[in-house]
Write a structure and sequence with these properties.
heterodimer; A: about 170 residues; alpha/beta; Beta Polymerase, domain 2; 5-stranded mixed beta sheet; 3 helices; about 20% helix; B: about 400 residues; mainly alpha; Cytochrome-c3 Hydrogenase, chain B; 3-stranded antiparallel beta sheet
């Protein structure tokens, strides 16, 4: 029996109180936004609480929202309770100047490379990560390529004009 | 001895250093792909391993932010290139979830046929490569000839073989031809016999058993903690399969079993993939039967009614104003995608292949993240091979089915 979204919401809001910032549901998946400094507390609670049991980390990534001033980077966790077959999305927002987030590697070994990838592309600093170095890009790279301010193509090129169909 | 006692961190040539550093890869013939392992060897035994990936990183996630949805299909081809159609279908299903398009049953069944064919070709490569690495080349060359039968079906359906770009959002670009169905029949008739022979060659083979049983094992608990999915997780004894847990493309209409292993070693991974091929064959047969049983208008439909995303027929483009407009809008990528955030996944060749798609109402995704099962479980490799022999590490690498394209995105 899948765990109802109401149950998750109730448990989370009792445990986190005001630190549960937002709750939404889209395309059948519930998404909880929590305060950035409570990410590990939330993940641990979801992992250990018997009636929730989100013990499988499906995915971990980040999103850059340049328009959200003061909380430009979102770190997104996708959790899964394999027994009850329920999925849950957890989001936290951090400012781009100080993107410090507690690491989830203590809870999930699989978070190791996922966090390295997130650091590699977005520059999220996972505090406490055992080996936070780039994983896919070259070590010498001095920027975080998936941030929105880095354009896809080399801007020094003058032979291409995309004005007509500008995407 | 522990890593500290062996002084593995000392520079090469130090008298106190008791281990030898060995670079396995990035272009070693036994790694089957471009990735590197820096191994610290104590004789033939691995004391410490460090995996390096990213040699063929192609910035798919960044590229996707500048492409209309239909152009991203070609990026998904290049993830796990042993089962490209599966990735294509996974992507189309993600788009359909976001756009709210529901597909007719026939489209679902045709997709199921293609997806299961792709799973077979994927597992076939993996298992025959395990054979190669344990010293049996013949099986690999023999079954390759019969993979050709599957590739001919792809070719008949979409005109392409390896990077297929198969299907469209809403269905297929054209209906399966009679030749395609004939080729499916031929595959269903000829392939099982060959696979049975291949199976006989390995499953009770003394040399193969000695090489694979008890090597490269991972417990269910560790596998779950490492976010393993797919055959590698099932070999450890956890019956998680996306096709059953959250059915997509009408998988709920089919009867099939999820094979599970017990020890999570190389032998169990081989056996789980082996059995999955038989299950896939049974699913293809069921789907083919269901399609043959369809009557009337239902029996010819091959795409959903989604004019904003599905290219109109060429003759309509020449004769109808609306079709011409849609044609232009789709080809130029001028269609606005509705705002939304969706995570959708399919059971890929290697496990849960997920697409996390965020749209802000623009013409291309605001953000697209691929959950690549291969990237996620490869990090466990260092832990699995620690203390193992070098030869076992090679077999472990192939039985995990590491595809560099999927790992590096």
């Amino acid at each position: 029996m899948p765990i109802t979204h109401e149950h998750i919401k109730e448990k989370l809001s009792t445990h986190l109180g005001e630190h549960l910032v937002a709750w939404e549901e889209s395309y059948g998946m519930a998404c909880a936004t929590v305060k950035a400094e409570h990410n590990l507390k939330t993940l641990t609670f979801l992992h250990d609480e018997p009636s929730l049991g989100f013990r499988f980390l499906t995915d971990l990534t980040a999103v850059h929202y340049p328009d959200r001033k003061g909380e430009e980077l979102a770190v997104v966790y996708h959790l899964h309770n394999l027994v009850e077959n329920t999925r849950l999305r957890i989001k936290i927002y951090v400012p781009i100047e100080t993107p410090n987030v507690y690491t989830a590697t203590g809870l999930f070994s699989g978070a190791n490379w996922m966090e390295r990838e997130t650091y590699d592309f977005f520059g999220v600093n996972f505090v406490g990560h055992p080996n936070l170095i780039r994983v896919l890009n070259v070590d010498e790279m001095d920027y975080f390529p998936l941030r929105k301010e880095y354009p896809l193509e080399d801007q020094t090129r003058i032979d291409k004009d995309d004005e007509m169909f500008g995407r | 001895m522990t890593a500290e006692q062996l002084n593995i961190n000392l520079p090469e040539g130090s008298i106190e250093k008791k281990t030898t550093r060995l670079n396995l890869g990035p272009t070693h013939p036994a790694t089957h792909g471009v990735f590197q392992n820096i191994l610290e060897m104590d004789g033939e035994r691995i004391v410490h391993a460090e995996s390096t990936v990213g040699y063929i990183h192609r910035a798919f996630e960044k590229l996707a932010e500048r492409r209309p949805l239909y152009q991203i299909t070609t990026l998904t081809d290049r993830l796990n290139y042993c089962s490209s159609p599966l990735n294509n279908m996974g992507w189309h299903l993600t788009c359909e979830t976001l756009l709210g398009i529901s597909t007719p049953k026939r489209v679902d069944y045709l997709r199921v046929i293609i997806m299961e064919l792709a799973r077979i070709t994927d597992h076939l490569i993996c298992n025959s490569i395990v054979g190669v690495d344990t010293g049996a080349y013949t099986g690999f060359l023999y079954v390759m000839q019969y993979r050709e039968l599957a590739y001919e079906i792809y070719e008949e359906v979409c005109g392409s073989r390896l990077t297929t770009n198969m299907g469209r959002i809403g269905g297929f670009e054209r209906d399966f031809s009679d030749t395609a169905f004939k080729k499916i029949e031929k595959f269903l008739e000829e392939f099982p016999k060959v696979w049975k022979e291949f199976e006989n060659l390995f499953t009770r083979n003394r040399i193969f058993i000695e090489r694979t049983v008890g090597t490269g094992a991972i417990s269910a608990e560790r596998a779950l903690n490492y976010s393993f999915t797919g055959p590698n997780l099932r070999a450890a004894g956890v019956d998680y399969d996306v096709r059953v847990h959250s059915p997509y493309s009408s998988y709920e209409d089919f009867e099939f079993q999820i094979p599970v292993g017990k020890t999570g070693d190389n032998y169990d991974r081989f056996m789980v993939r082996n059995e999955e091929i038989w299950q896939s064959l049974s699913i293809i047969r069921q789907a083919y039967q269901k399609i043959q049983n369809m009557k009337g208008a239902e029996a010819t439909v091959y795409h959903a009614d989604a004019p904003e995303y599905y290219l109109p027929a060429k003759k309509d483009v020449y004769t109808k104003m609306e079709a011409l407009i849609y044609h232009f809008k789709i080809v130029m990528g001028e269609t606005e995608i509705p705002t939304g955030e969706v995570y959708s996944c399919v059971e890929g060749g290697n496990g849960e292949l997920g697409f996390y798609l965020i749209s802000d109402g623009g013409r291309s995704p605001f953000r697209l993240h691929f959950r690549r099962p291969c990237f996620i479980y490869y990090q466990a490799y260092a832990e699995i091979v620690q203390g193992a022999m070098l030869t076992d590490a090679i077999v472990t690498m192939s039985s995990l089915n590491l595809i560099a394209g999927e790992m590096d995105a």
